[in-house]
Amino acid sequence: MTANHTPTTAPRTPKKVRVTHMRAMRDRGEKITMLTAYDALTASLVDAAGVDVILVGDSIGDNMLGHSTTLPVTVDEMVVAARAVASATTRALVVVDLPFGSYEVSPRQALETSIRIMKSTGAEAVKLEGGVTRAEHIRLITEAGIPVVGHVGFTPQSENLLGGKRIQGRGEGATERLLADVRAVQDAGAVLVVLEMVPGTVAAEVTAAVDIPTIGIGAGAGTDGQVLVWLDMAGMTDWSPSFARRFAEIGRQLTAAAGDYVTAVKSGEFPTAEHTFDA
Ligand code: KIV
Question: Which of 160, 203, 221, 236 has its CB 3.0 to 4.6 Å from that of 251, i.e. a possible disulfide?
């Protein structure tokens, strides 16, 4: 599927982003860009804009499916979304979240879910939450030839245990614990790691201490790349987290356009002869 629009940025090299490009980007100091997408149209738009990685996040739950958290999202829902995104993406690397309940039981469960997602979607990597406790899961998936993206700091699937959406990596020993998590993820073979909602100084310190590229969300400018939920980036909703920058106000424009449509139909101004088939 191709969106009818003009990209606002020039296409970037490489033609197709692969996991092997991530370290090279980090080594030459080029920031890695990641955005979420949950459907073919949005994927084609952000792909054309030159984003390096598209994440089919389980944030589909609280952003698109009407849930208040990511916890209810199923593998079936992720498969539908990931298939749509992969079908519409030509350049970006497509990464799919393993949803809550689909991998924690054992490394074998994590591998089986990853294989199912890879076989049925056309995606190129999976992402899972957790550090030291998920090292064996990451190792087994990686040994099967599937690239894994780690996710530490604030991990939304554990928000009940963490006491809500709270900044991680603060307080005594917190930096060391975060570093241990990132090192565990790295040593298990992960190709990237997301650092969510950690102080900027801590994220920068961790980034400098490891080889694996770090992707921040609410983690300041010292990481190797950035990720945002596309609805926050595009200003689709009234509220967005304080760490997200709204690069547009598309939600308001959409409401205004729909309002204009309602007015035009009610007043008889639309459709005109121009929108009407001749006999
Ligand atoms: O599901 C998601 O969108 C994520 C990002 C917030 C990193 O995990």
Answer: 236
Catalytic residue among 124, 172, 176, 196: 196
- What residues have CB less than 8 Å from 59, skipping those under 6 apart? 36, 70, 97, 156, 229
Strand partners, 149: 127, 192
CA of 66 to the centre of ligand 1 (A): 16
Q: Report the atom number in ligand 1 closest to the C-alpha of 229.
A: 3
- pTM exceeding 0.90: yes
- Ligand 1 touching residue 53 (CB < 6 A): no
Q: Which superfamily is assigned to 19-248 in CATH?
A: Phosphoenolpyruvate-binding domains (3.20.20.60)
Distance, in Å, from the CA atom of 69 to the CA atom of 243, rounded to the nearest integer, reads 18
Task: Kindly give the number of the ligand 1 atom that is closest to the alpha carbon of 194.
Answer: 7
Please provide residue 113's backbone torsions phi and psi, each rounded to the nearest 5 degrees.
Answer: -65, -40
Tally Cβ neighbours within 10 Å of residue 261: 11
- Among 35, 217, 232, say which to mutate for ligand 1: greatest number of ligand atoms within 8 Å of CB: 217
Report which ligand 1 atom has the smallest distance to the Cα of 36. 3
Q: How far is CA 160 from CA 40, 150, 164, 246, in A?
A: 32, 20, 6, 28
User: CB-based contacts of 62: which residues, under 8 Å, 6+ apart?
Assistant: 68, 69, 70
pLDDT tens digits, 53-62: 999 999 999 9
**Ligand 1 within 6 A of 135 CB?**
no
Active site residue 77: no
Write out pLDDT tens, residues 229-238.
Answer: 999 999 999 9
Domain map (residue ranges) of the chain: 19-248, 250-279
In this structure, the number of other CB atoms found within 10 A of the CB of residue 250 comes to 16
